[in-house]
Hints:
The structure holds two protein chains of two kinds. By secondary structure, chain A is an alpha/beta fold. Helices cover 34% and strands 16% of the residues of chain A. Residues 243-250, 258-268 and 307-313 of chain A have low confidence and may be disordered. By secondary structure, chain B is α/β, with parallel strands linked by helices. Helices cover 39% and strands 13% of the residues of chain B. In chain B, helix 4 crosses helix 5 (89-96) and helix 4 crosses helix 8. The two termini of chain B are 25 Å apart. Chains A and B meet through helix 1, helix 3, helix 4 and helix 7 of A and helix 1, helix 2, helix 5 and helix 9 of B.
Amino acid sequence: MTRYDTALALAAIDDVAESDEFILKGAVARLEAELAARSGYAFAVAGASGQSLLTLVLRLLAPAAVSAPAFAPPEVANAAVLSGARVRLHDAAPLESADVAIWWGRGSVTPTGETLRTLAAGRVVALADGFDLEPAGHPRPDVLVVSLGPESVVAGIADAAVALTDDAELASGIRLLRNHGQAPATRFLYHAIGFNCRADEVAARYLLGRLERLETELRGQAAERERAEERFAALAGGAWVEPPARASILTEAIDVRAPAPDGLGLVRSRARALHLEPAVRSLGYAAGAFPASEALAREAFVLPFAAEGAPGG
Amino acid sequence: MSATTVQVPFFSGRRSAARERDAVEARVRGWLEGGEDPLAELAARLSALTGSRHVVPVGSASDALIVLLRAAGVGPGDEVVVPAYTFFASASSVIHVGAEPVFVDVEPETYAIDPEAATRAFTRATKAIMPVHLFTQMADLPRICAAAREHDVLVLEDSAEAIGMRLGSQHAGTFGLGGVLSFFPTKTLAAIGDAGAVMTDDDALAERARLLASRGVTRDGDHLEIGYDTRCDQLQAAVLLCRLDRLDADVVRRAEIAARYDARLGELAPHVSVPTLRPSDPPSTYVYYVYSIECDRRDDLVAHLDRRGVGTETYYPWPLTEQPCLRGRPGIRFDVPVAQRLSQRAVGLPMYPDLSDEDVEHVCDAIADFYETS
Lengths: 313, 374
């Protein structure tokens, strides 16, 4: 579900046209500072999309093996495979040990402390659609890649994402790789074989406007979520709603698990577990390898909503 | 206003943007509030403009090259012959798909890949050649395509800079299996952020390119291939549609500016060489995306122009063979003297439709002053 703010979009376009600054300039820097401050991470690096940033992070961490959940979106499999690492999938729990473990969350947004403890001894990289507005004192992944695209919590006007981390060297590496590997101070000199994974100024300006309304949306969303949970709890057949870890966590959707949801006309979360998708068949997993993930793929679906205060809400 | 206070940035689109503001607003409202799909219309209009059967909008031209290479089946074990004097993505895209770029020299007139040098670089591992149409004119595609056919090599055009360039009636990017377009904000057809496109007449390649650019996921949600998340933003498409309306006029204005530069800077030979347009049969359509001169004491001139308020861009200060991250690669096998000379002598001057005649005169005065007084 997308929620656009036309006035904000037009203002962002006007500002960019007037500034003659288009990519990785002042608005992107301001957005990064804002997201770092709100998330509690030391560094925020904005990029073109969640998958692209996740790929850069994995390239920089250069794990021999990466562990990824079998119930996750295609972006996780794509980034893991494109990183060049040996990819191992795991079921909902327990998680295998690996140099890098990818965690993907929706309703929970970031892994809980208990989940983090079960993850690999190596680094934990999370891909999420939102982030915790009150992070102090809570355990968190080493790197959190948050989508800022039109269907994300902080819904942008275009594809965008941010990588959050406390690792200065990693943040610096992401900055290098997102702009082709070009040296920060020297045009057309390339120290690494990077990608074009840059954030646009127009997307950043729009997102800065959206962030100003975040707290209002959070309040509206908390009330909306409470109502939805009550309704689904009353459904016959064992419907289950993913509980948010804390009320400070902003999410764009309510995850629901119920038998045979197809008839409800709602959005399926994942049609298949990752290991059953043709794209990752080469990993060699057969049907039945990850029963919990396969069950989730059959039963989980997403109920989108725009809270009071959000565009379209 | 005294001459020293005149500012001529390397690029500005501010005046044009102000003129088209209402049109952009209407397009954006049509998308956000009216449910119009600017991406589909953009693809259709670019297809009509270029004559390419399929145009697949993506996030950037760099991504378009990666998608094109993979969709064409280029991968590990393959070699792709590329020019040594071009933007970095012409090489990095090849590496990203697991293949090896083999660098050859460029022609001194067009700055495009030298067909003879390229042919000498063909080996049994050569899967493709990637000519780049740089700055103003196209590579020698008739010779390149003939050599490629003879050696069973694919032609994949890096036509990122080449919108509007034609040989006869055939648009750049349509001579081989596929090509790309860039809509980087300083390009002839410019977005206000990153955007690009893949072009091809091949139905199967187009279908695979669409899949690869959309994370490898079909419209039905099936994850068929490991893909990239490189969708062209609808907002960029809405802006591009407005700017397509003025593309022809922009190309004409660029040519007027180039003629003015030619007339003034041609007088500064041998210190300055203006672009040489190679005649062709059938005749070519040239498009001045970049106005690049070759000059003595290039870096001193750039510093002088900066002091006079004139922005420049040094395309490209190093041949790809001298990039730190490419040193020692197996594809660096040949000497590239022309690319090396250009990397020491070439510089791009301001070239955009908003440039006034007075701006051009100021740039030329500043260059003339440099050589007359030093």
